[in-house]
Structures are given as C-alpha cells and as structure tokens.
Specification:
By secondary structure, the chain is an alpha+beta fold. The protein has two domains: about 15-70 and about 90-250, Alpha-Beta Plaits (2-Layer Sandwich); about 250-280. The chain contains eight helices and ten strands. The protein has helices at about 25-35, 85, 110-115, 140-145, 165-170, 175-180, 190-210, 255-280, and strands at about 15-20, 65-70, 95-100, 120-125, 130, 150-155, 160, 185-190, 215, 230-235. The strands form four sheets. A four-stranded mixed beta sheet has the order 8-1-10-9. Strand 6 (about 150-155) and strand 7 form a beta hairpin. The radius of gyration is 23 Å and the shape is elongated. The two termini are about 45 Å apart.
Length: about 280
C-alpha cells in the first residue's frame, strides 16, 4: 500500500473538459461503452432533463449531466418586460442548459490507490489510475475513499470498475475513445501540462467575452487531491454540476497517523522494557 504516491510530471497525460462547448450529444458515453465493453446501465427515465444515467459508477465511466438552470436576469424572472423587449427584440429564454461530461479525475494523490490492499489499483506509466479487474477481490475499500464518488461495484460480480482513460489505446499511441469521438472538442486529451496552459487561455477568452462565471475545476496542483488528471472548465459553481467544491484526498492524514502510532508503540515498548529491567534488578 503506497500512501500518497505521486505520478511523475513528465509524460503525464490527462483530460481537459471545456463544458462551454459541450452540446450534450452523449457520443462520449457511447464510445466509452463500445470500446471498453461497459454494460448497459439502466437507461431509465430519471426526470432530470435528458440525464438518464444520473452519475458515474461501475457501469457508467462517462456521464453527461444536463442541468436546466433558470437565468438570473432579475426583471425577467418577475415577468416584467425589459427595455429590449419593449423595443420589439425577442425575449431571451428563461433558462439555460449547462451540460458537462464527467469522468474519473485520475487524481495526483489517489485515495483509491492508497487503500487498495491487493494492488488491483495501480498507477500507469501515463500517470493514470487503473483497476486490474482480475486482481480486484471486491473488498470495496476504494469506494468510500474516492472524494468524487467515481468508483462503484457491479452487483453481478462484486468487483469495482471505473474509467481507465482507455489504457490499451494509450499503449498503442491512440487517444481515449471519448476524446476521439467528441464532435466539439469539449473533451481534449494530451500532455497534462499543455492542457493546463490551454485551459488558462480559454478561461481568459471567456472572461474577456463577459462570461465572468467561468472557472477551472481540478486545475490547481495545490488543491486537496494534488491536482486532477482530468479537470474542467465550468460555467457555474462546482456544486451545480454535482461536483464537490473542495475535494480532499481521504488518506492525506494516514502518513502522520502511522508516524504517531509508531511513536506510541515505541514509547509503549520502551516502558515495558523499563518495567522488565526494573523487575529483574
């Protein structure tokens, strides 16, 4: 169990998802399922707009969220006409759709990897985190350890599953299936350092265009998971998209806890040795 193992920065790849150009086509979901043979996951009517998978899980490695959000335009929400409407211009829609394709974050400090007792979860040469399904024993320790709720168990076999960032395709010099099929380049794949620079430039563009609510999520290497290998440009607060606002790797305190436990054990042994020595004398 390698606590807080950090991937090498050189050669690390990842995803940058620009939600401002996502059209909700779900091509990424389909491509992910087809390439990785991910089983069907219900396709139920949820009442959540066009979202029929609700969230990430063992059989949903890519999840496209549809958020129908009322526009914050004040007078329009009260039903009063704006100056533009009085001038005969068409009324703007009363709501907007926020669409985003979510995925495993392949954290720099991955709690799922830290707690796995069998080595089923491992860090690849690309800096990604992958589950070896033939090694997983279904203990489930990784499920509550993930601060994003990404990993899940399949009821039919009890093992855990999640996005592998198409590890087999990366080994063949190909990009992941979801990024390959995305028609708007909302999902971008490449060198993680380059993607971060590209994301900062895109954020600056949106701010200059007046979209001041735009922000990067998972981009900061000093955040609670050491920066994500899959990060996002959002148009609203993370909670709106169902993302935790301040994720923290759940195993961050384990090294200090083990150090304190070792010191306590050493103190106990020293005390026992002193008692034994005193008893002999």
């Amino acid at each position: 169990m390698a606590l807080l193992e950090e991937p090498a920065a050189e050669g690390r790849v990842g995803f940058f998802t620009d939600t401002s150009v996502c059209i909700g086509c779900k091509a990424c979901e389909v491509a992910c399922k087809e390439w990785n043979a991910v089983p069907e996951d219900g396709l139920n009517f949820t009442g959540m707009s066009y979202d029929n998978t609700v969230g990430l899980g063992a059989s949903t490695w890519r999840h496209v969220a549809f958020i129908e959000q009322p526009r914050r335009l004040g007078c329009q929400e009260t039903g009063l006409a704006t100056a533009a409407e009085l001038a005969g211009e068409p009324r703007e829609p009363d709501f907007r759709w926020l669409m985003a394709s979510d995925v495993c974050k392949h954290c720099t400090h991955a709690a799922c990897l830290d707690v796995c007792p069998t080595g089923a979860l491992f860090r690849t040469e690309f800096g990604t985190v992958v589950v070896q399904d033939d090694v997983c024993n279904g203990c489930g320790y990784c499920v509550p350890a993930c601060p994003y709720g990404v990993i899940g168990k399949r009821e039919d076999d009890g093992r855990v599953w999640k996005c592998t960032m198409c590890y087999d395709r990366l080994g063949a010099g190909q990009e992941p299936a979801c990024a390959k099929t995305c028609p708007t380049d909302s999902i971008q794949f490449g060198d993680l350092a380059e993607l971060r620079e590209r994301a900062e430039h895109r954020l600056e563009q949106l701010h200059q265009a007046g979209t001041t609510s735009a922000r990067l999520y998972g981009h900061d290497p000093d955040d609670g998971v050491g920066g994500a290998g899959a990060f996002f440009l959002l148009l609203d607060e993370p909670e709106v998209y169902g993302l935790p606002p301040d994720p923290v790797v759940t195993t961050r305190d384990l090294p200090s806890m083990w150090r304190h436990a070792a010191l306590a054990a050493a103190g106990l042994l020293a005390g026992l040795a002193a008692v034994c020595w005193k008893g002999r004398s």
